[in-house]
Every structure is written in C-alpha cells, then in structure tokens.
C-alpha cells in the first residue's frame, strides 16, 4: 500500500538509530493460520523453489501465503491478485489484504528473494532472478482449482504493491512477455516505483546519499543484499560519485542495475499491452514523479494507456526537506475525485472494471491525474513543457552557501508536468555541482521548494559558456495570485548529503530560459 511521508520519516528515524525492524529469518518467520474473525477465508503457507543465486547450485525458496476468499470454489472461480512488499518488508497478513478478499479476489502475497522467509539475496528485480521467481509463482496460481483461468497456464491475474512491490510487477510482466510472448498479468497497479533505477539512485551520476544509505541500512541486519552492493552504496556516499567501475577497486553499479527496471525492457523493444493503474508520489524523493511519467509514456503501448489511469498523490518516499526548505502534504485528491475514496478503493474499482468486467463509474482513463500541495487534482494528457519564460543570469556558489531564488512567473499560474531549463553554463572548477528546482513564495526570501525535490548538474571538468539543458523535478502546483514561481538554485541539498562540489567556486547559467508545462494557458 502507499507509504506516506509520516511513515517513511518514522522509518528513516529508526534506521538512523539502528533500530529498524528487520525481516525475519526463515526459522523465525511464524506460519500464518486462518484468522478466527474471518473463518470463511482460508490461508495456506508454502514455498516454491526457484533459480539458484549466481555462482551457486542450490535452488532458492520463495515463500508465500495464499488467501482464498469466502465461497471461492471450483464451480465459482475468482480472479487472483498478487501482492508483495516494499524494501525491507515481508508478505502481508490477512488484515492487510482483507479489503481485496471482501471484494471477492483471491490473494497471493510473497516474500521477495532475500526478504522475509525467502532465501537468497535481493538483486533488486533482476530479470534472471526475481523475474524467474514471479514466473514460478504465476505457475502456482495457474494450478489453483478455484482461480479463474483464461487459458492453459493463464490465470485471471492482477498485481498490487508499492516501491519494491511495484518493481516485481514490472519485472514479472516483462519477463513473462519475453519468455511466453504475453505478459500473462491482466492488470497491474505499481505504486511509487521506478523506471530507471540508476537514474533514481544517482541522477546525472550524483548519489542521493540519504536514500542510498537508508536502503542499505534497511537490508543490513537481514543480509538481504549481495556484499558488493553494500560496498558500492558506501563508496558512492564516500566518493561523491555513482560507482561505475571507472575508479580502480570500486564496484560497477551501472552494470549491476542496467537490466533492473522498465527502461531496459523498453530498450529491448518490449511494451506491456495491459491496463495499469499507476500511482506515484508528487513529493517522492527517491522515485520521483518523473519516473512514473516515463513508465506511463514508455513502458506500455498507446492502446494500453487508453485503458489505464495515472494518479499522483502527495506522498511516497519522503524525507524532511530542510535545506533547501520545502513543503509537506499527505493527501490524495485524485483518488477521491475518481473513486470517492483512497487509492485502495480506486484500485479495487479499477480491477473490478478490468478483471471482472463490471460496469463502474470510473472515469479518467488515458489521462494523468496529479495532486497539488493545495489538495487539488489537476488532469493532463502529457507532461511536456510548452511555455518558455526568460529568467536571465542564474548563479550560485559551489560547495557552501544558501539557496537563491530567481523569479520565473507571477501567479496565478498552474504548472503540471516536467519542466526544464536551458542556457549557457560556466563553471571553472572540478566536479562542479549545483541543485535546481522550482519554488513558490511572495518574495525570493520566503520561497519554498515545490514538492521538495531538486535535481543536480554534474560537470566533472571546467566549462565556459557551454549550452546545456538542465532537468528540473516534475511537479504539479497552483501558484496563487499574489505569489510567484521561482527557480531555486542551491549549492547543497540534504537529499544529496555531501554530494556538492568538493571545491568552492561559482556556477553561472546565462540566457536562462525555464520551460514550463502550463495548464489552462
């Protein structure tokens, strides 16, 4: 289920103190039993065997729980929903999936490789490992006599989960498409997940330090990750660069993560031709809104998009935005508008429409519905920037200093999509770094980051007057009358802790133009 700002902030606080609850070992994992309050629902625990770890011969056990809803039987078959957990988690208990059981779906929830009761290490959704694990689980579902079947080995099947629980959906569907010529899944609902894992962890090669260290800490006690990944995450945090093997003795994470996401499958010419309900966090600092946009635009066919819905809520992977200062929100106006409730209610209605063929009042298919910090829902068909605003010269110190804001436009204005800036860049030092984002305020002194995100420039060597296109974080925001939209530039960012320039200097962009996706011009 979606993880809110409060949940993730609390999680990171525990990680910092070394007290985070670790996934249990196979020996300690309790076997789940039928819940007394819901006697009509039966549960069964088990494990399948899947492919060995690289360099080993012993098969790896992937453990699961199957929840059979009331009245499901061979003569009354039901669709199945597959579920898995976020990073560092484990499979669901009955209360977590009860709404799906009440809606008449069977549920299979499983521990991903390296977590919970399952064996092996987490390879972060590698097609040859986690992809094969999902394929084996789909075979299991196809053999259940009370699950609806569309053909031999083809159950009526949807998938849910957020973050790492969204990653398995993509790797499973793409791996089935590669192996069988069809994705087998009939609907997906990936939330707050990634398109390009390397770009998410280290945009432009600059490591999101806080998240790299937090993800490493969340798997340390259970030894979920291969040893080289722990080493690489620490190397990235220490050296200030994403380890790609170019420095002797360091790891090569570029190769390790190359296949671990939809981007690689898209590069192989694959697209998923199935309906999806994509959920993404507008304030997500790990897998930001732009990653969801890329999945919407590239990971599925145009036909599938016409049968799909994109919803962005205020939430996701969120850390406090202290430097530069941001804003906080934890609302979901778009799910409320589309389905009269939260994202889970929207999800069930979407699956009723797709998997059961039931008439629903759902609307908004083929469009992207984005929450603003002010709890409004903005609908767009494309995140493309279509309006240019001249800003002039934008400059910041490197390595030290405070954020500076440059006015882009006066309110009222609504911006929803992916902005960027162009200009002539001059930076005369080595490993030049600066961080850019949009902000709102009445004056440059009180401007706050829109939805908390910044993105870096990374110029390893001196440049003078070179034309550059600089990415800005995707946003959805209403700038009211009396306030202004600013371009904020800062030499440091708490998300990219210690990732600023190692040497003091100045980064200047002349003839700056900010390109905005303006709604309702």
UniProtKB/TrEMBL annotation:
Name listed for the protein in its UniProt record? Peptidase S15
Q: Which residues form the Xaa-Pro dipeptidyl-peptidase-like domain?
A: 62-308
Instruction: Give the span(s) annotated as Disordered.
Output: 22-41
Task: Tell me which UniProt keywords the record has, alphabetically.
Answer: Signal
Q: Which Pfam families match?
A: Peptidase_S15
* Alphabetical list of InterPro entries matching this protein: AB_hydrolase_fold (IPR029058), FrsA_esterase (IPR050261), Xaa-Pro-like_dom (IPR000383)
Q: Which domain of life is it from?
A: Bacteria
Which lineage is the organism of this entry classified under, starting from the top rank?
Bacteria, Bacillati, Actinomycetota, Actinomycetes, Propionibacteriales
